[in-house]
């Protein structure tokens, strides 16, 4: 796994900004760093060649490409404002993308697409996190 150089210095500067600004800065940097993984997941998402004519629980039809269009990222900033979690995957309406395709069932063989997409972008995400965090910390410190 890639390593961030100067992480202690960045962490110290982030703490110096205060909890509110530091948390916002951390969340923003993490979301921008997660973009390559999100785009890779969308690119690798399998697309069916047939229309299922089924509706989701929200009443939307599951047409070819439905999974690809419903992959999103979400950030969760913990109360301490020093920890952020980024979730990347299908929205609840497209649950079948991970439940049946990624993991597989007894009748459907597993066909991983989400985890390989994440793994392929890991080094890029670490570099982008470091660069974006440094940029945002400097911007917030200058205000």
What does the model show?
The structure is a single chain. This protein has 143 residues and is mostly helical. The protein has one domain. The chain is 52% helix and 10% strand. The chain has six helices and two strands, in the order H-H-H-E-E-H-H-H. It has a two-stranded antiparallel sheet. The mean pLDDT is 86.
Oligomer: single chain
* Euclidean distance between termini CA atoms: 34 Å
Give the amount of beta strand, in percent.
5-15%
Give the H and E element order: HHHEEHHH
Rounded Rg = 18 Å
Number of helices: 6
Q: Find the count of extended strands (DSSP E, 2+ residues).
A: 2
Q: What is the residue-mean pLDDT, rounded to a whole number?
A: 86
Give the low-pLDDT segments: none
Helix content: 40-55%
Main sheet summary: 2 strands, antiparallel
Computed structural class:
mainly alpha
Number of domains: 1
As laid out across the biggest beta sheet, the strand order is: 1-2
**Overall 3D shape:** elongated
Architecture blueprint of SSEs:
Blueprint: H1 7-16, H2 19-44, H3 66-69, E1 71-77, E2 84-90, H4 96-102, H5 114-120, H6 122-141
Antiparallel strand pairs: 1-2
What attributes does this structure have?
single chain, 143 residues, mainly alpha, 2 strands
Question: Summarize this, please?
Answer:
This protein is mainly alpha-helical. The protein has 6 helices and 2 strands, in the order αααββααα. β1 and β2 (84-90) form a beta hairpin.
């Amino acid at each position: 796994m890639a390593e961030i150089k100067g992480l202690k210095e960045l962490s110290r500067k982030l703490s110096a900004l205060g909890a509110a600004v530091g948390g916002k800065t951390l969340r923003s940097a993490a979301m921008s760093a997660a973009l390559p993984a999100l785009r890779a997941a969308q690119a690798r998402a399998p697309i069916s060649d047939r229309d299922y004519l089924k509706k989701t629980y929200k009443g939307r039809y599951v047409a070819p490409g439905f999974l690809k269009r419903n992959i999103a990222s979400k950030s969760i900033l913990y109360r301490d404002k020093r920890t952020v979690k980024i979730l990347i995957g299908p929205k609840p309406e497209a649950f079948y993308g991970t439940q049946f395709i990624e993991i597989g069932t007894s009748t459907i063989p597993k066909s991983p697409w989400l985890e390989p997409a994440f793994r392929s972008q890991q080094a890029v995400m670490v570099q982008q996190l470091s660069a974006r965090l440094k940029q945002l910390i400097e911007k917030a410190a200058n205000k």
